[in-house]
């Protein structure tokens, strides 16, 4: 999804929730500023659906909750709210909120040309504030490439690059799958510059 800053006064989370309920599109709230989220490509949407479907089926009866791009994530100890493409929480504290997750163990962002730098940079730095986040998955929508940022037991973030023929391993939810499962049937073409 693509974020574009809107020219609004600074909003509190309460004002943001009330205002956003009346909007036709989704908006992220970062440091009191509202950013409109526009739609992605067909591949972007299909890839996001594949992840949420796969996670939901894998986690059935586990007590974990799979979120799609309609579920906000509150950045821990801030008033910032984002919309990842997919997320999973297994934290009991997230069962007490109806508008968002705060403690996902897994977040997925499907990349586009306009959001890739943000998803890899400042957005990831915000997500790192979450003490239970273990896996941050960045997924190309134009080629068979996935980057996994995994927090190891020592609390260090490691990056694992996956390509054709690889098996993705998400330790956060104990799930392994071939990368081709995400890309099956898609026409992959580089985005126009």
Beta-strand content estimate? 25-35%
- Cα-atom Rg, whole angstroms? 16 Å
Number of strands: 14
Number of helices: 5
Terminal residue distance? 17 Å
Topology as a string of helices (H) and strands (E): EHEEHEEEEEEHHEEEEEH
Low-pLDDT residue spans: none
Spatial strand arrangement across the major sheet: 4-7-9-10-11-12
What is the overall shape? globular
Main β sheet profile:
6 strands, mixed
The structural class is alpha+beta
Summarize model confidence as the mean pLDDT.
92
Instruction: Summarize the amount of helix as a percent range.
Output: 10-25%
Protein name: Uma2 family endonuclease
Domain Putative restriction endonuclease: 13-173
Pfam family, one: Uma2
Keywords: Endonuclease, Hydrolase, Nuclease
How does this structure look, described?
The chain is 21% helix and 31% strand. By secondary structure, it is of the alpha+beta class. The strands form 4 sheets. Strands 4-7-9-10-11-12 form a 6-stranded mixed beta sheet. Strands 1-3-2 form a 3-stranded antiparallel beta sheet. It starts with a strand and ends in a 10-residue tail after the last helix. Pfam families: Uma2. Keywords: Endonuclease, Hydrolase, Nuclease. InterPro entries: Nuclease_put_TT1808, Restrct_endonuc-II-like, Uma2. GO terms for molecular function: endonuclease activity.
Keywords:
about 190 residues; Uma2 family endonuclease; endonuclease activity; 14 strands; Uma2; six-stranded mixed beta sheet; alpha+beta; three-stranded antiparallel beta sheet; nuclease; endonuclease
């Amino acid at each position: 999804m693509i974020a574009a800053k809107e020219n609004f006064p600074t909003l509190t989370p309460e004002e943001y929730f009330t205002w956003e309920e009346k909007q036709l599109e989704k908006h992220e709230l970062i440091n009191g500023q509202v950013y409109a989220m526009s739609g992605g490509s067909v591949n972007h949407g299909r890839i996001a659906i594949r992840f949420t479907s796969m996670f939901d089926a894998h986690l059935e009866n586990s007590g974990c909750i799979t979120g799609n791009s309609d579920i906000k994530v509150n950045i821990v100890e801030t008033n910032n709210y984002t919309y990842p493409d997919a997320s999973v929480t297994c934290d009991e504290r997230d069962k007490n909120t109806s508008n968002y997750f705060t403690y996902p163990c897994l977040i997925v962002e499907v990349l586009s040309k306009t959001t890739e730098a943000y998803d890899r940079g400042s957005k990831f730095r915000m997500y790192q504030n979450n003490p239970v986040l273990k896996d941050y998955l960045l997924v190309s929508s134009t080629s068979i490439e996935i980057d996994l940022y995994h927090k190891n037991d020592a609390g260090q973030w490691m990056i694992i690059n996956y390509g054709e023929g690889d098996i993705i391993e998400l330790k956060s939810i104990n799930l392994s799958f071939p990368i081709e499962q995400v890309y099956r049937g898609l026409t992959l073409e580089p985005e126009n510059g």
